[in-house]
Structures are given as C-alpha cells and as structure tokens.
Give the backbone structure.
Amino acid sequence: MLVVLILLALFGSRLLLKRAINQIVKKFRELKALDAASARTTAELDIHGRGLIDFRLFKDYTPTAMDLLIKGEIIQKADDERYFLSEEKLEKATPKK
C-alpha cells in the first residue's frame, strides 16, 4: 500500500510540474515576452512563489518550473529582473511526437 502511495505522489508531482511549466510558457506568450526588448518582470507575468500566509492544498510548482526553464535557457534574463521566452530553445527542448 505504501508503494502505491509513493508512486501516486511521484506521478502527481510530475503532472503538477508539467502543468506549471505550460502555464508559465502560456503567460509569456500572452504578454508577448518573446525577446529582450519585450521582456517582463515576474510581477508583470504574475509568476511568484507563495507568501508566508498563502495556503494551498497542493504544493505550488511555479517557482520550481521557472527555475527549470531558466536553467534550460528556455526563459532568459534580459536585464535586471526582466525575463523573456526563447521559442527557439523551447522548440529544441520539446520532444517531437
């Protein structure tokens, strides 16, 4: 029974992380933050971690997803605290079906 719960937790967290990545990419596209000139802050994109009082039933995977996208150079830093989506890097990182 414990093994089933662990597998369920792993599968669920992977699904939530994938969902957070897709939501971040969607926000960048909606605001057309696709190059250094059109880069946006995380506040403008409404991408931020949880506050001290914020309570959710499930963990917020947005900060983890953002970190992964930055490390993969899919989200790139323009200057200071502004970021943009590199469609080219995203296309290269996306597995072909």
User: Anything to note?
Assistant: Residues 2-30 form the longest helix (29 residues). The radius of gyration is 15 Å. The CA atoms of residues 43 and 82 lie 9 Å apart.
